[in-house]
Amino acid sequence: TIGSAPLEDRILRLPGQPEVSFQQYAGYVTVDETQQRKLFYYFVEAETNSTSKPLVLWLNGEANMIYLESPAGVGFSYSQDPSFYNSVNDTITGHYVPQLAQLSVESGSNLCLRTIAKAEDSIDLCIQDEMNKYLNRKYVQQAIHAQLVAVSNWTACTHRVKYDESNLENPTIGVVGSLVGSGIRVLVYSGDQDAAIPFIGTRSLVNRQSKKLGLNTTLPYKPWFDDEKQVGGWTQVYGENNKLAYATIRGASHMAPLSSPKRSLTLFAAFLAGKPLAA
Predict the structure, then answer these.
(1) Is residue 191 part of a domain?
(2) At what angle do helices 199-212 and 173-181 cross, to 10 degrees?
(3) Burial (CB count within 10 angstroms: exposed 0-12, middle 13-18, buried 19+), residue 250
């Protein structure tokens, strides 16, 4: 069921944060009672008109946004069954973002799903170090209701979870196609400096999928520009009403919003608003 965030999860004061006009919540969502598996979430309301603005679920890591640390064993999320960590079927966001959206559509839930944005999955080590220090302070953990259960501390990247690497060979582009066919707008984006999953292959996958869906190119591959009138990347759009779009983010690595936050935000805001990128 979908409801409002519980009152006990409300963050009264986030250490180091100035006074804000919006509400914040953090806590746990139980996903498996038997294994006592719980995922940690952090929900930030929009500063204004939060009930009328789109709600974003950010997996794996802004306003009206829920950050969910998944799977269990990542960040503050945990399972009290040790065997779980050796058999995690979820692999990367390239799998569970489209699959979660597909489950929502096929189950006929009352979740009002409109769009998904999917990254084809370099971190500033200094930023990473400060983030680790902050989230491992006891008073910060108390403020966000984090529990160190089955995890000793917060880390950005854990080696405890053993992913089922056989799933990496199962592409989810077909799932993306089914979502587009059901009326969900989809954006697939890549950092053009991504050395883990080069953008050229991703662009080819999206292009082939558009042909399978019978979508015409409505915006040919061309550069888009950021707020400073600099080239932000390249984009191509298929189908009416931006049904399927692909975009690169110039200068971005595997974790695009971390390495190129301003351009990622420009891309993200345009997608949520249903508008084409500035060209």
Answers:
(1) yes
(2) 40
(3) middle
Give the alpha-carbon dihedral of 45, 46, 48, 53, to 10 degrees.
-110
Q: Alpha helices, DSSP H only, in the chain?
A: 93-107, 125-135, 138-143, 173-181, 199-212, 256-259, 261-273
Domain tally, the chain: 2
What is the CATH classification number for the domain harbouring 100? Answer: 3.40.50.1820
Phi (first) and psi of residue 120, to 5 degrees: -90, 100
**Does 118 map to a domain?**
no
pTM of the predicted model as reported, rounded to 2 decimal places: 0.69
Give CA–CA dist 245/114, Å, rounded. 14
The enclosing domain of 227 has a CATH number of 3.40.50.11320
pLDDT in tens, the chain (279 residues): 345 568 899 999 999 999 999 999 999 888 888 878 888 888 989 888 888 888 887 775 444 456 566 655 556 665 565 544 333 333 344 555 566 566 666 666 544 555 555 555 433 445 567 888 898 899 999 999 988 877 788 877 666 666 566 666 567 778 888 888 888 888 999 999 988 888 998 899 899 999 999 999 999 999 999 989 999 999 999 998 888 999 999 999 888 888 899 999 999 889 888 887 866
Whether 25 and 90 map to the same domain: the answer is yes
Q: Is 89 helix (H, G, I), strand (E, B) or coil?
A: coil
Instruction: Tell me the torsion sign for CA atoms 258, 92, 132, 122.
Output: negative
Among 191, 237, 247, smallest CA distance to 210 is for 237
- φ/ψ region of 136 (left if φ > 0, alpha if ψ in -120 to 50, else beta) reads alpha
Same-domain check for residues 129 and 106:
yes
